[in-house]
Every structure is written in C-alpha cells, then in structure tokens.
Amino acid sequence: MAGGEFAFIEQLRCRLGKMASDVRLGIGDDAAWLDPAGRQLVATMDTLVAGRHFFPEVSPEDLAWKALAVNLSDLAAMGAEARWCLLSLALPWRAEGYGEWLEAFATGWSALADRHDVTLVGGDTVATDGPLTLSITALGLSGHGVMRREAARPGDVIWVTGTLGDAAAALDLALVERGQERRAVPCSAPRRDALEARRLRPTPRLEFGAAALAGGVLCAVDCSDGFLADLGHILKASGVHAQVALDALPLSPDLADLARTDPERLQRWPLTGGDDYELILCAAPALSTALQEAARSLSLRLTAVGSILPATPDARAAVTLTWRDESLSLPFSWGHVHAL
Ligand code: ADP
Ligand code: MG
C-alpha cells in the first residue's frame, strides 16, 4: 500500500504513539526499542477477522476497543501489567480513504489504552483483497512470575470475576435482528443496549489479575470461548477435575431477567457463550479472604463457583455440574460454538 500509507501511519503515530518513559523509540523506525527495566516480559497476540470475529459494519470505535481488550484480557489472565502494543492492519480499501475511519478507530483505542497506560509502539499496514483483519501483539511486564493454566490443585476454589453470558445473549439478539437466529429473544431496547455494550466493549480485568498474582494465585485463564471451554483448558493442563455449582454462576440482572423464561438459554449463555473476558481463577482456600478484599477494593464482583477435584479416571466428564447440590446432566451439547 504505497502513497497514502505514509500519511496513514503518520496519523496513527500522532493519535496513538504517545511518549512513555519505557519507550526509547516508538512508531517511525524499523522497530520499536523498549525498556522493560529488568522486569519479565509477557507477550500475547490475537487476530480479529471481519465476518468471523466481528460484524463488518461494527463502528471503528467499538472495533478498536474490542481488538485491544481481547489482547489485554490475555495479559490480565497472566497477572501482567499491560505496557505496549503492536498493531497489524490488513485493510480492504486504499489507505487514502482511511482518514475518518482511523480517527474513529483511534478514539475507541485510546478510550481503553489510556485507562491502562498502554502505548502503541509499532505495527504494520497492508492492503488486502480479503476481509478487514487486525492482529495485535500486546506486551506486559511482571515482577512475580505469571498465573498459569497448569497450576490448579485439588481443593482450590474456582472464582469468576464479573458476570457471565451477557455477550452471548447480545450475540443471539443481534443474530435474531439479522434473521440468522430463528428463536426470538423477547427483550426491551434498553436491556438489549446494555447487553450489547458488554459484547462490544468488554473490560479486561488487568488490575484484578495483577492483584491476584501478587496475592499468591498461581492459576488463571480469561474467559473468551465460554466458561466451560476455558475452565476445561485449566483442567486439562492441570490434570484435575472440577465441580461447578450452576446456581452460583454470576449473572447480570439483565441476563437473569431475560433468561428467566428460557431455562435452556439460562444455562447455555453463561456456560458456553463466549466473549465475556472475565477471569477464571483457581486458588487455595487460604487466599479467599484476600482475594475477596482485592475485588471489593476494585468494586469488582467476584464469585466462588466451585472447586477443583482430583481426576478420577472413570468419571464421565471432567466437570460435574450441580444445581442446589444435586448433580445435573446437561440438556445441550457444550462444545464451544464459534461465533461472531
Ligand atoms: P518497515 O517497512 O521498515 O517495516 P513500515 O513502513 O511498515 O516500516 O512502518 C513504518 C513505521 O510505522 C514502523 O515504525 C511501524 O512499526 C509503524 N507502523 C506501521 N503500521 C502501523 C500500524 N498499523 N500501527 C502502528 N504502527 C505502525
Ligand atoms: Mg513494515
């Protein structure tokens, strides 16, 4: 992408490439030069493709927020402090036409990046005949190691931040509106907007992730593919099983109301719906009070939803679900549904 590319990158640099003391060289040279000041580097990358991970008509503000949020959420799950990002853009149009798009994109990006003091330090910009595609590399720092999927132990309490299922409900609502989902979801406009805001602008739990790690939590994952799928990653990596109380799963009042008349969705949205970007943590019971205190000081809901059990070879599934202490068999298939 010649010609307009330079103006495009200059606009990006002006809007997003702010100075920071740990950035020796940011956007503009062949590579960024960063100064982690002796701390450990934590790196992650996520790609979003139009039509697969977002509706092509999404606003550039919301798109920027979400693309950054999903990457910061991965750093949160490790307990790292987010510092820097690199952004690769494959644009299906010519760069000359991108001034307004980029301005709006930069607004959505900074709304989240400034909250966490994250600097854009480089990237790549190419034209493509394919769909709009964004790849972000997020770099964070840690002084106390990281939280890992393989570190859950029998006896650990399973914690979840925030609430589960809002984004999945919002996606169903959006699919109904588009005629792609036949079963209607009766919902008022304000409630629909509240759920949609959760889907479009997830909140990466960076402060809580860092506090949990500092407090001694060893195991966490972020909830991007659905609670059961992501808890499943922990169970597989750690070689353990779990018991989860379905009646303890944290639901927003909007979701609880919406799903009251539809028990199948009431279970499916929080259990298998993706895109929540909450954290699932496994921690020894001795850490419970400190974790609850950390969550309270951040005004963040934190819920104990179950416990880690030793693996039993003859168990039918790695997760036993209970409802009011009775074990439950699921009325639906609980594979992760890939969706927008
Ligand atoms: P090179 O050809 O040396 O790779 P580029 O022309 O691709 O350089 O990029 C010039 C500068 O602009 C580099 O510092 C690069 O990191 C930055 N840059 C290019 N595209 C982006 C982008 N989408 N976001 C942030 N920085 C970018
Ligand atoms: Mg380049």
TrEMBL record:
<dbReference type="GO" id="GO:0005524">
    <property type="term" value="F:ATP binding"/>
</dbReference>
<keyword id="KW-0418">Kinase</keyword>
<keyword id="KW-0808">Transferase</keyword>
<keyword id="KW-0067">ATP-binding</keyword>
<dbReference type="Pfam" id="PF00586">
    <property type="entry name" value="AIRS"/>
</dbReference>
<dbReference type="GO" id="GO:0009030">
    <property type="term" value="F:thiamine-phosphate kinase activity"/>
</dbReference>
<feature type="binding site">
    <location>
        <position position="74"/>
    </location>
    <ligand>
        <name>Mg(2+) 4</name>
    </ligand>
</feature>
<dbReference type="GO" id="GO:0009228">
    <property type="term" value="P:thiamine biosynthetic process"/>
</dbReference>
<protein>
    <recommendedName>
        <fullName>Thiamine-monophosphate kinase</fullName>
        <ecNumber>2.7.4.16</ecNumber>
    </recommendedName>
</protein>
<dbReference type="InterPro" id="IPR016188">
    <property type="entry name" value="PurM-like_N"/>
</dbReference>
<feature type="binding site">
    <location>
        <position position="225"/>
    </location>
    <ligand>
        <name>Mg(2+) 5</name>
    </ligand>
</feature>
<keyword id="KW-0784">Thiamine biosynthesis</keyword>
<feature type="binding site">
    <location>
        <position position="46"/>
    </location>
    <ligand>
        <name>Mg(2+) 2</name>
    </ligand>
</feature>
<feature type="binding site">
    <location>
        <position position="124"/>
    </location>
    <ligand>
        <name>Mg(2+) 1</name>
    </ligand>
</feature>
<dbReference type="InterPro" id="IPR036676">
    <property type="entry name" value="PurM-like_C_sf"/>
</dbReference>
<feature type="binding site">
    <location>
        <position position="74"/>
    </location>
    <ligand>
        <name>Mg(2+) 3</name>
    </ligand>
</feature>
<feature type="domain" description="PurM-like C-terminal">
    <location>
        <begin position="153"/>
        <end position="308"/>
    </location>
</feature>
<feature type="binding site">
    <location>
        <position position="74"/>
    </location>
    <ligand>
        <name>Mg(2+) 2</name>
    </ligand>
</feature>
<feature type="binding site">
    <location>
        <begin position="123"/>
        <end position="124"/>
    </location>
    <ligand>
        <name>ATP</name>
    </ligand>
</feature>
<dbReference type="InterPro" id="IPR010918">
    <property type="entry name" value="PurM-like_C_dom"/>
</dbReference>
<feature type="binding site">
    <location>
        <position position="222"/>
    </location>
    <ligand>
        <name>Mg(2+) 3</name>
    </ligand>
</feature>
<keyword id="KW-0479">Metal-binding</keyword>
<dbReference type="InterPro" id="IPR036921">
    <property type="entry name" value="PurM-like_N_sf"/>
</dbReference>
<comment type="function">
    <text>Catalyzes the ATP-dependent phosphorylation of thiamine-monophosphate (TMP) to form thiamine-pyrophosphate (TPP), the active form of vitamin B1.</text>
</comment>
<feature type="binding site">
    <location>
        <position position="224"/>
    </location>
    <ligand>
        <name>ATP</name>
    </ligand>
</feature>
<dbReference type="GO" id="GO:0009229">
    <property type="term" value="P:thiamine diphosphate biosynthetic process"/>
</dbReference>
<feature type="binding site">
    <location>
        <position position="30"/>
    </location>
    <ligand>
        <name>Mg(2+) 4</name>
    </ligand>
</feature>
<comment type="pathway">
    <text>Cofactor biosynthesis; thiamine diphosphate biosynthesis; thiamine diphosphate from thiamine phosphate: step 1/1.</text>
</comment>
<dbReference type="Pfam" id="PF02769">
    <property type="entry name" value="AIRS_C"/>
</dbReference>
<comment type="similarity">
    <text>Belongs to the thiamine-monophosphate kinase family.</text>
</comment>
<keyword id="KW-0547">Nucleotide-binding</keyword>
<keyword id="KW-0460">Magnesium</keyword>
<feature type="binding site">
    <location>
        <position position="275"/>
    </location>
    <ligand>
        <name>substrate</name>
    </ligand>
</feature>
<feature type="binding site">
    <location>
        <position position="46"/>
    </location>
    <ligand>
        <name>Mg(2+) 1</name>
    </ligand>
</feature>
<feature type="binding site">
    <location>
        <position position="44"/>
    </location>
    <ligand>
        <name>Mg(2+) 4</name>
    </ligand>
</feature>
<feature type="binding site">
    <location>
        <position position="53"/>
    </location>
    <ligand>
        <name>substrate</name>
    </ligand>
</feature>
<feature type="binding site">
    <location>
        <position position="30"/>
    </location>
    <ligand>
        <name>Mg(2+) 3</name>
    </ligand>
</feature>
<feature type="domain" description="PurM-like N-terminal">
    <location>
        <begin position="28"/>
        <end position="141"/>
    </location>
</feature>
<feature type="binding site">
    <location>
        <position position="149"/>
    </location>
    <ligand>
        <name>ATP</name>
    </ligand>
</feature>
<dbReference type="InterPro" id="IPR006283">
    <property type="entry name" value="ThiL-like"/>
</dbReference>
<dbReference type="GO" id="GO:0000287">
    <property type="term" value="F:magnesium ion binding"/>
</dbReference>
